[in-house]
Amino acid sequence: TMPLGSIEVESKFVAGPDTEAKLAALGAAPASNSSFSDCYYDTPDLRLTLADHWLRLRQGAGWELKCPPMPRPVPGVSSHLLGTTFPELPAWGTVASNHIPGARSQELPATATMYQELTSPQAIVDRLCKVVGVAPLPSWDQVPAAVAGLDLKEFASFVTQRRSYRLAGGLRVDLDEANFDYTVAEVEALAETPEDVPAALEAVMQLRQALGLEGTAGVPGKMSVYLQRHRPSHYQALLRAGVLHDPSPTLNST
Ligand code: V4E
Predict the structure, then answer these.
(1) Which of 83, 85, 92, 239 shows the smallest number of beta carbons within 10 Å?
(2) Interface ipTM
């Protein structure tokens, strides 16, 4: 089976005026403040984001691909374009639940998400090619060559100012302020192996509770708000595909 790498379990929330005091009381250590820009890329027909794949070039960090721990087949995308056949991708629910306890999205609390974060160029290019349905060329050994070869274009670009806190157990809290007038916070834990996912999820949900966020609604991420404001047709396509969700007051933490 393919190596999964580390998996990021996270939960977004709206920070209040007392959030940082609560973090301090919980023993959170302020980590370095940072400011970075992200440029996100997709095919002209949005194959990556419709499949919940988020390719970005982050200033200072390089290329990153945030994607579901196992790829789910995209309806209507042939797996044998350009004459090259790929092994059938396994069904998302089946495989994820076999490999990762608690990994099926319907088993996650509504306020939590789980993504694999790929950073190795080969892993990124391989996954991009599978999702787009194109055979990788040998010359695509670095991400920019694949980006050009797959005709990927920038669809979003913004700057984030981030204040980070670290807590026991590898938990992290990020307080983000984007340059399009949107502020959002997130609790995050890394699972090094699929078996660690349930514990990471438990730690994230316990910290939510300790911060007094129990029962509060999930909040949209920076990208949701960016697309809603600046790329409304892209946003609507992602809503229809079930990749993003309309902010809903009935959403709760369970
Ligand atoms: C995964 C994802 C996107 C990519 C950006 O991820 P996000 O965690 O929102 O950004 P950021 O800057 O905090 O990344 P980090 O530094 O933590 O790696 S854009 C949309 N998604 C999917 C998604 C979703 N469906 N729902 C929620 C609440 N968040 C993200």
Answers:
(1) 83
(2) 0.97
